[in-house]
Design brief:
Structural class: alpha/beta
CATH topology of the largest domain: Aspartate Aminotransferase, domain 2
Radius of gyration: 21 Å
Shape: globular
Number of strands: 13
Helix content: 25-40%
CATH architecture of the largest domain: 3-Layer(aba) Sandwich
Length: about 375
């Protein structure tokens, strides 16, 4: 019999990953022969543009691209990120000191806390919010997490008046996961000024900046100034979730601290994947417009979003048409997990809002990662009464 080793106390504080539990429940129904329609995890089903894939395939054949990268990332991609920020947001960045390539944005979001938060200091995390903010980033740094409730009457925008003024770090994310809420530059300026006034490190998660609809264009917090750090990702924009490629940009000391931390924990994203990232960013128009294949994907997500929201309205659920992300967020009228279990019985996988924070119990997130005909079938199942 093998030994059972006890986990470290900090790891025991992390709740079981929500999607693992959902997978277990769904697997049981699949074993019973039920065909599941999965709107749970936010993983784009639409393909990565072929030009990007071919670029990676070509790059991986070169011996020099099969070696270690630097933890800070290859110069070519850092230059490409800086050039993209200039034409997309009008922000000028030094690729040597203000850009760091990450292994997806999730890694950077966690490691920035490793680099700058001391034991006992406060991290502000929105609730509902991406679990890394209040989970690993806070718990693994022995930090105190101040979970600030986002409210529907405030359009799911974090109100800095609710935040402690002695926090070391603040995580903010718009377009927002899980609510789909968006913000304008004036809102970001207010938060930026608050963070500067209280010497709080502002970490802006902008992973969904390019996944927007109905004429809305997401801003960058760096348009307010460079005393912040912003995280971006190739995952959602280019359907590159499995590539694990992202970036952090902004204040030189924050980017430098992140790079120093990464130097102790990883050896950088694979060079051939970084080459694909260069190709992806170079596909943008000179005016910052989306590449055609990416725009095609966004149009598809936008149409699916419309079908789902209108279908939920027909079923009697209150939800708004999101202008960002590919998530639809709605009030299910009962505890989130109860609703989720009911939907799994009907062959539909959704994500309970409670998985993003206790304040979101009673809400549900659905990712429009299925074609319109499957969305319509899911809506039919959702409206069908239990036998």
């Amino acid at each position: 019999m093998t030994a059972n080793f006890k986990q470290a106390e900090r790891l025991q504080k992390i709740p079981p990953y929500l999607f693992v539990r959902l997978e277990q429940l769904a697997a049981k129904k699949k074993a019973e022969g039920v065909e599941m329609i999965d709107f749970g995890i936010g993983d784009p089903d639409l393909p990565c543009p072929g030009r990007i894939v071919k670029s990676m395939q070509h790059a991986v054949l070169a011996n020099e691209n099969q070696k270690y990268s630097s933890s800070k990332g290859e110069k070519a991609l850092r230059v490409a990120v800086a050039a993209w920020y200039k034409k997309r947001f009008g922000v000028k960045l030094d690729p040597d000191t203000e850009v760091c390539i990450t292994i997806g944005s999730k890694e950077g979001i966690y490691n920035i806390a490793q680099a700058f938060v001391n034991d006992g200091e406060k991290i502000i995390a929105p609730s509902p919010g991406y679990p890394v903010y209040s989970g690993a980033a806070s718990i693994f740094n022995n930090a105190e997490c101040a979970k600030i409730a986002l409210r529907p009457e405030k359009h799911w925008l974090l109100d800095v008046k609710d935040c402690p003024e002695d926090a070391r770090m603040l995580y903010l994310n718009y377009p927002n996961n899980p609510t789909g809420a968006t913000c304008d530059i004036d809102y970001l300026k207010d938060v930026y000024k608050w963070a500067k006034r209280h010497k709080t490190i502002l970490c802006y998660d902008n992973a969904y900046s390019e996944m927007t609809f109905d004429g809305y264009k997401a801003p960058s917090v760096l348009e307010c100034g460079k005393d912040a750090i912003e995280f971006g990702s190739f995952s959602k924009t280019f359907s590159m979730t499995g590539f694990r490629l992202g970036y952090a940009v902004g204040n030189e000391s924050l980017v430098g601290g992140l790079a120093k931390c990464k130097g102790q924990t990883d050896s950088g994203a694979p060079i051939f994947i970084q080459q694909a990232g260069v190709t992806a960013l170079e596909m943008y128009g000179d005016d910052g417009s989306l590449p055609d294949p990416v725009q095609k994907n966004m149009n598809e997500f936008g149409e699916r979003r419309k079908v789902l929201v209108e279908g939920l309205h027909d079923l009697g659920y209150a939800c708004e048409m999101p202008k960002g992300t590919f998530y639809v967020w709605f009030d299910c009228g009962k505890p989130s997990m109860d609703f989720t279990k009911e939907m799994i019985e009907k062959g539909v996988i959704v994500t309970p809002g409670s998985g993003f924070g206790d304040s979101a119990d009673g809400y549900i997130r659905m990712a429009v990662t299925k074609p319109v005909d499957r969305i319509q079938e899911a809506l039919r199942r959702m409206g069908k009464k239990n036998d």
